Amino acid sequence: MNYIPWRLTKSWTCLMCGRCCKRYAVNLTWKEYSEISKFWPDKVRIRNKEPYLGRKMDGRCEFLWGNACFLEMVGMKPLACKLWPFMVLTKPLKIDENFDGLYRTNEREYFVYLNPNCYGINRGNPVELVNTIEEVIKIWNGSKKEQYYSTSRKLLPRVLSNPLLSDKEAPGCSSNKKTTLEGETWACAHSFGITPSTLKYTRELGD
């Protein structure tokens, strides 16, 4: 695959199209596997001694909700998903003869490339490209966890932190995937296998 050096792109943004969640198997770290399997043991897999997210019969990620990542909304998005479509290296690819993937920070040099299969390339605000590259590098080296530039703005913020404990507070959620509360439509998180003690509602995604 011919990865694209970041300097050869005009811009990038996440379109929240869900394409990356429908085409690729996502490898997990063992720490991520342990955390996710506490809540959804049937939605993660181990193959050839490597953990990864489960996929549905049609190839979609088990945690794809519409075109959005449910794990991102509950603060458990895997590193591989946070980085996609970017690849961060400490040495250039052989195809990068002109060092177009080079990005210098105060500490060191990195080489950043994009997967050409992402529809978000050359979309969005060109001014934010450098901010995105900086954020991706920090996420890659572990100095940052939260995303802003490198994820869809439609997901910020989407999680309601206070649990709703009774059907009286949210009628209909015990048996349905959606309910209406205070005039707004919500999705019931239990449909993803969350136990009653950790039941939370997240707003149904919209434009």
TrEMBL record:
It comes from the Bacteria. It holds the Pfam family CxxCxxCC. This is YkgJ family cysteine cluster protein. It comes from Aerophobetes bacterium.
